[in-house]
Amino acid sequence: MAGVLITSCKKDKPEEPNDNEVITTMKLTFVPVGGGTTLTYLFDDPDGPGGAAPTQQEIVLATTKTYNVTVQLLDKTKTPVADVTLEVQSEPTAHRFYYEPTAPSNIAVSGLDNDTNGVPLGITSTWATGAVATGKLKVTLRHYPGTPPNKAIGDLVSSSKSSTDIEVEFNTKIQ
Amino acid sequence: MKLFITILFTFFIAATAISQSCTISFSGHVEDADTKEKLTGAVVTLKETGMQIITDEKGDFIFTKLCSGEYTLLVSHTSCDSIIKKISFAKNFHLDIFMPHARKVMGDVVIETKIGVANTGFKKELSGKDLEETKGLSLAEALSKINGVTMLQTGSTISKPVIHGLHSSRILIINNGVRQEGQQWGNEHAPEIDPFIAGKLIVIKGVDELKYGSDAIAGVILVEPKPLRNIPGYAAEFNTAYFTNNRQYVVSGVWEHQFKNIPAFRYRIQGTFKKGANASTPNYRLNNTGSEEKNFSITLGWKKEKFNTELFYSYFAVKVGIFNGSHIGNLTDLQNAIAAEKPDDVFLGERTYKIRRPYQDVSHQLLKLKSTILKGEHKFNVLLGGQFNHRKEYDVVRSSSNTRPQLDLSIYTLSEDINWEHPKRNNFNGVAGISMMQQDNTYGGRYFIPNYFAYSFGGYVIEKWSKHKWELQAGIRYDNKTINTTRLRFNGSLVNYDFNFSTVASSFNSIYKATDLWKFNLNISLASRAPYVNELLSDGIHHGTATYEKGDITLKPEKSINISGGVNFQNKQKTFQLDLLLYVNSINDFIYQQPKPSTPVLTIAGAFPLIEYQQTNALLSGFDLSASVKAHSNVEWQSKISVLNARNTSLKDWLILMPANRLSNEITYSFKNGKGISDSYLAVEVLNVMQQKNIPDESNGKQDYKAPPGAYNLINFNAASAISFGKTKITIGIGIRNVLNTVYRDYLNSMRYFIDEMGRNISVRVKIPFNHVYQ
Asked: B737: exposed, middle or buried (C-beta count within 10 Å: 0-12, 13-18, 19+)?
């Protein structure tokens, strides 16, 4: 206790705050099947929640094409920038991405990668586009806090077993 | 009149009455001369008759069927020096006895008795039997037995006291004389105090608040340990309790000692261990609602005739689980969770003591040195306090290999208080003092409040005047507080804000004791509270409520004018008692959280509703009424009503999150003392809590996620008995909370959106005291 009291008298410099649960950025990388330019689209909030408003890009894709899509999560408040996707990957049975296009976006998402139990994880997925359209697509990352997580194939995005880590709705355009 | 000091330490069970045809009754009231507290458990003996009575919880005693004549009166109490007094009477007689507060060492002659007006002020106290019934419960749960005090809860494990609708930084909690400085601003930050330290819990309003601060807008809670031992010898007390609902067990022990050869030195060691498993509602068990508490304290005292010093150290550590079905990622989650009738099965049904994320891990250390110097009739007190509070909150995290807390707050506080009590002159006595405080707060992990240094200094003067049936008190206090805050952003930039606040408080109290039966009390208090750092600078997502909370650096201190009126009546036979407290608290620039439904904050986890700290004018008014009737020598009925109206007068609207009106009725049956069995009683309480219908208007946007839960009625049961084994008197108590296993939710519990309150909880408690006096 005496030691405690002595340290309290010292003038100390503020320490670097370290919020280890921040995600500032979601990056979607689109690799066209059969060749073509790789596309990336971002939801970006580099100062974290609050402060400056986030920027959100419109996802623009070509008609009737298939893309192999990879999602990456970043924490830009860290130096160097932290790749949060690795944390999700290391506990695949407690996480799940959902991709929900709203008609008439003319996008179909399938082929999500699975966790170790064969239940969809969704770090990679396959997007197929149709005719020219504008619409919306919501990307949600759900986290299962239970022990064990009890994640199952049939779980809806609104499952009461899981809670939301990320929920971003992109505007989409097929042209 | 010849005066002595006598020591009486054996607690007899019943007195052998002498049956004569005499009809005089001799009644009295025993108070602590210094603190003016009613002394329960004082042993009053009429030596010539051998009659002995222990004062009740109001400090009263009565001897009946006495003959006229001269008697020797002996009064003793563990906290006080004993007194002997010769009295004589020929008709019914009443005497008020003021016990000196163990000021001098044994052998000195100390007596101070006078007949006059007792100072009760606005003071409500939990002690004796009522306090015993709360053994094993949290501080707030214990305090909520006091009429007018309710609880603000987060599930079943976190609770904090609410006085007349106000809580957190509007209540000062004084732990053993030191103002508790933790992270009391948060709704889910419970007071870091072991209730087993307390010999009594007192809620005060009025002039005496000024000793502790100018910001006690709601009142002051005193957690008062028993004074150190005053008779050479040693004593121990062992308390244990078990609660069936969450399989919680509590073990608490205290040991105190005064040496025969150095009676000036006394010490006490006290410790508590408490552990609870997951709690159960009537229909389902809630995962991760366990808790574990480890506390201990050491008191060392040195007392000479002119000098008295006490060193106190306490350590409090608690780890509490938070129901994980309420973990909310964003607004959609919250709405889904609220819509669900019950949480998902993955969050229910586990019978374990294990605590997982989310949980809180909080420790609080207090070191205090209090010295009293007597110079003639003047008394000087010097109080030095050091506190270290460390709060770590562990959220649900993405990666289970993450062992770090997400919120990590450390607060160091040093405080210095010096006061001077002048002797009574011309019916005046008073106290003047200065106090200073230095505080350093640092945070790690998620930002909620910034790092800061705070310095404050203040001074006060209180004078009391009493004569005949009147007692007048008045006081004034000034405080100045400087806060220098620093927040380091992730990109290395610093955000600094400095604040300075001056606050003034004053109070006037008058008591008029019209007759022995009627007493009137009027109090006017002005208090002023500087905004806290969270109100100025919080900026972030509050996960429990899925809101984005934002402070305002332009907030001014809030100022309150509190007018209270009290009436106290008891009939001559002491079979009927009535206590009424009316209050109006008008608060200018009342700081509160205003939802801003039209401007949500967009984050990567979705849009969060914005809640901003704002100021308005508020008017809180209401009354507490309690009455008790002794219908029969064994049967007592007690009724308590507490009513509150809380208005946002600027918006002509109601204030959110105010306790609902409530009514409690309790019938106690006391058994006659038998051979080796004493103090036995059975009590049944029916508690009716109304639905809170006075809530903010939602026509201009959502103010709350769900309408307040409905009214509920609970039946509680208590029984206790003391069994003597030789000199040891063991008390055994049984309590049942929510006897009928009623399903209900409470408006002041933040978990009301998701889960029901705890179901039936049966508890058994045992108290084993032991006492030895050196011959």
From this structure: buried
CB contact, 8 Å: A4 with chain B? Answer: yes
By the CB < 8 Å criterion, does A100 face chain B? no
Helices (H) and strands (E) in chain B, counts: 4, 40
Right CATH for B1-115 from 3.40.50.150, 2.60.40.1120, 3.30.830.10, 1.10.530.10: 2.60.40.1120
In this prediction the ipTM stands at: 0.89
In chain B, residues 589-628 whose CB comes closer than 8 Å to chain A = 601-606, 608
- Cβ distance A163 to B328 less than 8 Å, yes or no, reads yes
CA distance B547 to B496: 25
Reduced 3-state DSSP string for B329-382: CCHHHHHHHHHCCCCCHHHECCCCCCCCCCEEEEEEEEEEEEEEEEECCEEEEE
Which positions ≥6 away from B424 have C-beta within 8 Å?
none
Contact check, Cβ <8 Å, B490/A48: yes
Question: Chain B residues with CB inside 8 Å of A146's CB?
Answer: 324, 346-347
Which of A7, A21, A91, A155 should be substituted to probe chain B, the one whose Cβ sees the most B Cβ atoms within 10 Å? A21
Residue A63 at interface with chain B, using a CB cutoff of 8 Å: no
Task: Assign domain A21-174 one CATH number from 2.60.120, 1.10.3470, 2.40.160, 2.60.40.
Answer: 2.60.40
Q: Is residue B667 classed as helix, strand or coil in its secondary structure?
A: strand
End-to-end CA distance of chain A: give it in Å, rounded.
69
Domain definitions of chain B by residue range: 1-115, 124-226+237-773
Q: For residue B171, give the nearest of B97, B222, B117 by alpha carbon.
A: B222
Q: B359-409 pLDDT, tens per residue?
A: 999 999 999 999 999 998 899 999 999 999 999 999 888 888 888 899 999
Q: Is there a contact between A164 and B440 if contact means CB atoms under 8 Å apart? A: no
Strands B219-224 and B171-175: parallel
Q: Is A14 part of the contact surface with chain B (CB cutoff 8 Å)?
A: yes
Q: Do B488 and A16 touch (CB under 8 A)?
A: yes
CA–CA gap between residue B337 and residue B344 (Å, rounded): 9
Cβ-proximal residues to B196 (8 Å cutoff; 6+ apart), any chain: B135, B239, B252, B254, B270, B272, B295
- Binary contact (A17, B447; C-beta < 8 A): yes
Q: Does A20 touch chain B (CB under 8 A)?
A: yes
Asked if A163 lies within 8 A of B396 by C-beta distance, the reply is: yes
Which residue has better confidence, B429 or B325?
B429
Query: Chain A: residue nearest B344 by CA?
Result: A160
Q: Where are the domains of chain A?
A: 21-174
CATH superfamily of B124-226+237-773: TonB-dependent receptor, beta-barrel domain (2.40.170.20)
Q: Report how many Cβ contacts below 8 Å link chain A to chain B.
A: 156
B398 SS3 class? coil
- Measured in angstroms, the CA of A169 and the nearest CA of chain B are apart by 9
Work out the minimum CA distance from A2 to partner chain B, whole angstroms: 9
pLDDT by residue, tens only, chain A of 175 residues: 333 333 433 444 555 666 778 899 999 999 999 999 999 999 999 988 888 999 999 999 999 999 999 999 999 988 899 999 999 999 999 999 999 999 889 999 999 999 999 999 999 999 999 999 999 999 999 999 887 889 999 999 988 889 999 999 999 999 9
Cβ distance A145 to B494 less than 8 Å, yes or no, reads no
Under 8 Å between Cβ of A160 and B340: yes
Would the pTM count as exceeding 0.90? Answer: no
- Which residues are B765's β-sheet partners? B241, B733
Q: Are B427 and B450 in contact (CB under 8 A)?
A: no
